[in-house]
């Protein structure tokens, strides 16, 4: 494996050197966004809020519960003796002094029972803001030992989450709970007093926990969040290029060829991983250095090694995902587009989980989703860096953010992802190997043997299942001379695929120094047998020995001495002729110098020495077959397996290769498969024929002709129609066994048995004497051909001889021709129909890659960019007001100070085993001490309880929601442990189920400019990535000369390109632009990008942009092949749709309010009007800005089609101009104008020299011709 891996890496290195544009783009793409971030760091850090390390503690005074105001009306259900008594006590508890007309009046709330559920439903709809409903859940005729009740008040309590929308301290948020808390304590205290008969002695107060003021650095926090998409975008081109390379290797069959010459699929995969190591190192090293190094770094208090490890592991996961993505389709036609769309699609789960607070047990599952652990890492960095805390290896085991796992879990999940994704890629390689591979069943890993076709006999031997025997004659097998040595020994080989028997007990010897020809119809098992010989497949039964080496157990050694020439030419792009031969020589274990020397000698022998520096695309068909044969002979292969080596060649080239193959006879063992019987006769020392998976013969050609041939063939050419009865009578009079073979207009032939050859002279003399009488012009005699032998051996049905059919008189049809406009319209219609048929021929793949997936992406982008979603206005929930409400928090803490006996705190602790109860005589000192050790520790303290003989205080934090009622419930249950012997920490359970309040107006938050522009740019990116596929047909037309044939047939180039542009514009408008508009209308919830004026402007920009980009696509199709064109276009989209807009944002941020333009700004401005991808991106961002402005400012709307600085009207004109100019260049290129001008420039000084020995007559003749031409012009 080690030597093979070195050879593959050498090949990758050679290709990298020659792809001098592609490789730098791939490297640069991994660093460019980090460099941009680094370039603006000074501007960003100037706005930094400096940390305050002297923590400021803010104290709050307690507030007696009796001083709070309760609800004015209370309704309760059900009405029982217990609830009536309890509510009467509550009425007294909620009474308060009310001053009316200068007199103190005691006012009590209205207490009223609710009769049934329907009345309760009506009440919830009509209740006011000062009304409350109490629902008792476990009351009956007896007093409940535990009380459960729900309070419903019409107020905004945000019961769906304990987190606030913002991250600031909430000074007054506790005020909204006053009436709720007053009622809650009234119910709790009166229930305990009624149940126990004891009076609660302590005065109950509420107090906020001391607040430790901390100044955060929000700039660093935003930078950390922006590093998530930066890390993702930086690897896009690396992933796309790798996925496209893998797909191309598999689709062209190169990967299978490598496997046949001994390279395992695992080694191929490792070589591709190592091939992208340079880009990975640049990504990890440069990315780490740019954010951590320098005196004023972006992230100053983090160990750089932590970032490097994360980037490295994340890079490996992206590479593993690229391997998986390459198996989504088997056709390389849409390789780059599919890779880009899959890369975008796989990022959606991470975006959906962003800011979602999930249960802690779900984090390991979420960590297996692509890109999620990378998000965790930057969340953790933001959580510490925003407070100026040092982030070192000591902190990686703890999670510092409620929405993410720890850095250690990030590392572990990334490692697990690498293993899991590479395993999935290995699995896909088995079940989806492509058109040239043998696919295993999807459940092969669950089967005892991969295909389930073997079972063990009691003796331990393998037995073939369902074997059907078919007898054949032994007359077709000839014993070989005893002195011949066996090169390839095939012993009783059978192969079964599921229920199909491909080979059945094939036994065959291929001898050294001979050429053995393998014949057989398509599907008879020839390729399967060759694959078994090459070690690609394991036989179901039997074995194959090559030079004494077993193809299964000694595969590596065997493949060093065997060479394969596949049926079709399989070459690596960018490797020269010499490098191809060297590559296969190196795979045989030869050293580099010896490989180069032997390869040059081999090319000299094959007549390719003068082509050694040529690319394979520059060779003719015959040269390519010679090169493929040279690759098979590389490394002095002792055994050659040639699969139809002369297929598709002309006669002269084929015979030249025959001479070359005959020169190998005597020195090598050669197994050759072919469909040409003439080739088999000319080359084959022995012939073996397969039919229906069985070996039908193995002998020399003469032996087979004697055994199967009909003897000799006697043919006549007659004057006129042959007189068959007369001629037959003459022949059978001498040889009765003669039979008619076939007849035609002026010929007839007969089969003569070879055993009657002694009578041939007498027959010939007799025929000569009857020649004129029988109308015979000439007579011929010959032996049976191998074609007859093959048809008899390899045909199940009797072959009927076909007679010639006499056609009638050929009359050339006459068509009416059209001219003028009718001709142009007809040509246009035909060209449009042709384009549509091309797309229809691949309709399934077209719909998947260019319709379904892009529409899904646009839909997902639209949903992700909505602000007013259901999640932003969540459903009101009925929640339990206890510490379990914060169960998603990793580390919950409660402070307590109990200075009175009788309280059983252990029961409370047992009720909440995952909550950390800390005893603290001084809460302020405890909080300050914990915060100094770690600033984030403060947020973990939720509530506190202080109890002494006279007072009981429930303290609550201001950092989370609903902490006040939770603290009061905890205080109630602690007091219950003193009053009730059976109290278990859950004596009283309070539920909060707010009644929905109807706002007097509809409040809608419009999209901000960032979200609108993100939506627009993302839609453009998806669309242009899909439009890249329009380059495929023009490239095919150029390489196959189809477009040139159209022009020669009378189609004007302008009309041809106009039809192409029209078709593509209509298609992409229908499948991309219109669905994007419909999705914006149907799924926009922010009333921003669904405005009619914006949609009209967006439609115009997108259509013009697609037309301009299509023109650019056509230009690229003249310069590169299909795959190279796709790579160039995808790179342009990445840089001009993603990078250059970021550059503009960076420049605006750095310049601020300055208006002075530098040279770089002018360069970007030129791009806006010259490069279509950048122009359309800038136009849609301006449209997005205008729609956001108009949505928020209806009184002063901005114009879309104006020509101002911030209006996209000028860019629309620029797109139209780009389309016209670039399409003009395309048409002129097709006419050959630029080639002609180039040739004229090169030959401007060239003058035809006159021969010195021209006589006067020649000069006079030339002068006459030139004068005549001038007169005619």
TrEMBL record:
GO cellular component, one term: membrane
Protein name: ABC transporter domain-containing protein
Membrane topology label: Multi-pass membrane protein
PROSITE patterns on file: ABC_TRANSPORTER_1, ABC_TRANSPORTER_2
Similarity comment: Belongs to the ABC transporter superfamily. ABCA family.
GO MF entry, a single one: lipid transporter activity
Main location: membrane
Family matches, as CDD domains: ABC_subfamily_A (cd03263)
Membrane-crossing segments per the record: 20-40, 230-247, 267-293, 305-328, 334-353, 408-429, 843-864, 1015-1033, 1054-1082, 1094-1117, 1124-1143, 1211-1234
UniProt KW keywords: ATP-binding, Membrane, Nucleotide-binding, Repeat, Transmembrane, Transmembrane helix, Transport
Localisation: Membrane
Domain ABC transporter: 488-717
């Amino acid at each position: 494996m080690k030597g093979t891996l070195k050879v593959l890496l050498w090949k990758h290195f050679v290709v990298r050197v020659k792809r001098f544009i592609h490789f730098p783009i791939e490297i640069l793409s991994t660093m460019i966004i980090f460099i941009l971030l680094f370039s603006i760091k000074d501007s960003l850090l100037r706005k930094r809020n400096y940390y305050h390390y002297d923590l400021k503690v803010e104290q709050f005074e307690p507030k007696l519960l009796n001083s709070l105001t309760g609800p004015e009306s209370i309704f309760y259900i059900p009405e029982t003796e217990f609830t009536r008594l309890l509510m009467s006590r509550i009425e007294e508890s909620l009474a308060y002094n009310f001053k009316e007309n200068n007199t103190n009046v005691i006012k009590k709330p209205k207490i009223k029972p609710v009769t049934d559920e329907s009345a309760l439903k009506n009440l919830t709809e009509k209740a006011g803001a000062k009304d409350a409903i109490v629902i008792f859940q476990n009351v009956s005729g007896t007093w409940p030992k535990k009380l459960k009740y729900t309070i419903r008040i019409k107020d905004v309590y945000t019961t769906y989450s304990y987190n606030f929308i913002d991250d600031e301290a909430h000074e007054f948020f506790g005020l909204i709970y006053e009436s709720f808390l007053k009622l809650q304590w009234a119910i709790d205290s009166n229930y305990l007093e009624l149940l126990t008969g004891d009076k609660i002695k302590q005065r109950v107060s509420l107090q906020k926990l001391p607040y430790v003021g901390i100044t955060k650095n929000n700039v660093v926090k935003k930078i950390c969040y922006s590093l998530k998409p930066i890390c993702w975008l930086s690897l896009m081109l690396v992933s796309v290029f790798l996925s496209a390379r893998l797909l191309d290797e598999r689709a062209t069959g190169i990967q299978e060829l490598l496997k046949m010459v001994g390279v395992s699929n695992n080694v191929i995969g490792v070589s591709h991983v190592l091939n992208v190591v340079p880009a990975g190192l640049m990504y990890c090293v440069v990315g780490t250095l740019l954010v951590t190094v320098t005196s004023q770094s972006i992230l100053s208090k983090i160990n750089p090694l932590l970032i490097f490890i994360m980037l490295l592991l994340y890079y490996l996961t992206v590479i593993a995902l690229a391997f998986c993505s390459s198996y989504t389709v088997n056709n390389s036609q849409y390789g780059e587009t599919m890779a880009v769309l899959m890369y975008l699609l796989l990022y959606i789960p991470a975006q959906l989980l962003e800011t979602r607070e999930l249960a802690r047990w779900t984090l390991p599952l979420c960590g297996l989703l692509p890109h999620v652990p990378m998000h965790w890492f930057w969340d953790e960095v933001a959580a510490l860096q925003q407070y100026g805390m040092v982030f070192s290896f000591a902190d990686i085991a703890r999670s510092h953010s409620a929405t993410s796992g720890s850095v250690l879990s990030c590392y572990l999940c990334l490692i697990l992802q690498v293993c899991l994704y590479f395993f999935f890629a290995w699995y896909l390689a088995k079940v989806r190997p492509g058109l040239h591979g043998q696919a295993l069943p999807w459940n092969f890993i669950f089967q005892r043997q991969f295909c389930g076709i073997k079972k063990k006999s009691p003796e331990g031997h393998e037995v073939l299942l369902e074997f059907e025997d078919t007898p054949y004659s032994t007359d077709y097998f000839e014993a070989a001379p005893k002195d011949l040595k066996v090169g390839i020994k095939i012993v009783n080989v059978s192969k079964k695929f599921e229920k199909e028997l491909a080979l059945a007990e094939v036994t065959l010897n291929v001898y050294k120094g001979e050429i053995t020809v393998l014949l057989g119809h398509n599907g008879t098992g020839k390729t399967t047998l060759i694959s078994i010989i090459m070690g690609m497949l394991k036989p179901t039964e039997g074995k194959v020995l090559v030079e004494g080496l077993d193809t299964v157990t000694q595969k590596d050694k065997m493949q060093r001495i065997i060479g394969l020439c596949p049926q079709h030419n399989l070459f690596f792009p960018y490797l020269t002729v010499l490098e191809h031969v060297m590559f296969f020589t190196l795979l045989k274990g030869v050293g580099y110098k010896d490989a180069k020397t032997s390869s040059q000698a081999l090319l000299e022998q094959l007549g390719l020495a003068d082509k050694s520096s040529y690319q394979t695309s520059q060779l003719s068909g015959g040269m390519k077959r010679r090169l493929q044969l040279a690759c098979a002979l590389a490394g002095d292969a002792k055994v050659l397996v040639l699969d139809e080596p002369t297929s598709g060649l002309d006669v002269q080239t084929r015979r030249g290769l025959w001479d070359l193959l005959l020169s190998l006879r005597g020195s090598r063992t050669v197994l050759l498969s072919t469909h040409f019987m003439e080739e088999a006769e000319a080359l084959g020392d022995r012939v073996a024929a397969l039919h229906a998976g069985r070996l039908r013969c193995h002998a020399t050609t003469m032996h087979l002709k004697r055994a199967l041939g009909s003897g000799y063939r006697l043919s006549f050419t007659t004057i006129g129609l042959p007189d068959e009865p007369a001629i037959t009578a003459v022949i059978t009079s001498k040889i009765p066994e003669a039979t008619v073979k076939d007849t035609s207009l002026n010929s007839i032939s007969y089969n003569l048995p070879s055993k009657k050859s002694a009578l041939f002279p007498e027959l010939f003399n007799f025929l000569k004497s009857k020649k004129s009488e029988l109308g015979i012009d000439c007579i011929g005699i010959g032996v049976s051909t191998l074609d007859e032998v093959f048809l008899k051996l390899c045909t199940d049905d009797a072959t009927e001889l076909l007679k010639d059919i006499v056609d009638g008189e050929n009359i050339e049809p006459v068509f009416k021709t059209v001219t003028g406009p009718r001709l142009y319209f007809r040509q246009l219609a035909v060209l449009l129909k042709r384009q549509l048929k091309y797309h229809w021929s691949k309709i399934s793949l077209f719909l998947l890659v260019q319709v379904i997936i892009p529409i899904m992406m646009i839909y997902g982008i639209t949903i992700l960019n909505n602000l007013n979603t259901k999640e932003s206005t969540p459903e009101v929930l009925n929640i339990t007001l206890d510490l379990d409400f914060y169960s998603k928090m990793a580390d919950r803490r409660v402070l307590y100070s109990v200075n009175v006996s009788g309280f059983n705190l252990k029961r409370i602790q047992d009720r909440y085993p995952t909550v950390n109860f800390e005893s603290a005589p001084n809460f302020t000192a405890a909080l300050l001490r914990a915060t100094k050790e770690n600033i984030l520790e403060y947020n973990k303290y939720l509530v506190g309880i202080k109890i002494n003989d006279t007072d009981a205080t429930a303290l609550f934090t201001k950092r989370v929601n609903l902490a006040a009622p939770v603290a009061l419930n905890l205080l109630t249950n602690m007091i219950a442990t003193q009053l009730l012997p059976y109290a278990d920490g859950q004596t009283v359970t309070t539920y909060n189920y707010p009644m929905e309040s109807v706002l007097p107006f509809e409040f809608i938050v419009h999209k901000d400019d960032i979200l609108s522009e993100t939506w627009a740019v993302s839609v453009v990116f998806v669309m242009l990535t899909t439009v890249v596929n329009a380059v495929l047909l023009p490239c095919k037309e150029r390489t196959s000369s189809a477009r040139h044939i159209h022009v020669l047939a009378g189609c004007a180039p302008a009309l041809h390109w106009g039809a192409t542009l029209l078709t593509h514009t209509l298609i992409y408008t229908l499948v991309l632009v219109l669905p994007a508009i419909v999705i914006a209308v149907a799924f926009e919830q922010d009333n921003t990008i669904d405005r009619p004026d914006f949609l009209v402007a967006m439609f115009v920009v997108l259509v013009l942009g697609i037309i301009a980009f299509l023109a650019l696509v056509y230009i690229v199709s003249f310069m590169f092949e299909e795959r190279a064109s796709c790579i160039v276009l995808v790179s342009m989209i990445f840089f001009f749709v993603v990078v250059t807009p970021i550059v503009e944002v960076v420049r605006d941020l750095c310049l601020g309010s300055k208006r002075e333009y530098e040279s770089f700004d002018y360069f970007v401005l030129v791009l806006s009007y010259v490069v279509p991808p950048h122009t359309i991106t800038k136009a849609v961002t301006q449209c997005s800005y205008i729609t956001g402005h108009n949505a928020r400012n209806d009184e002063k709307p901005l114009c879309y089609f104006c020509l101002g600085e911030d209006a996209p009207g000028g860019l629309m004109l620029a797109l139209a101009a780009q389309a016209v100019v670039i399409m003009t260049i395309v048409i002129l290129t097709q006419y050959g104008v630029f080639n002609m001008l180039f040739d004229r420039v090169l030959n401007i000084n060239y003058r035809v020299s006159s021969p010195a020995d021209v006589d006067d007559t020649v000069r006079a003749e030339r002068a006459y011709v030139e004068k005549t031409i001038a007169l005619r012009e």
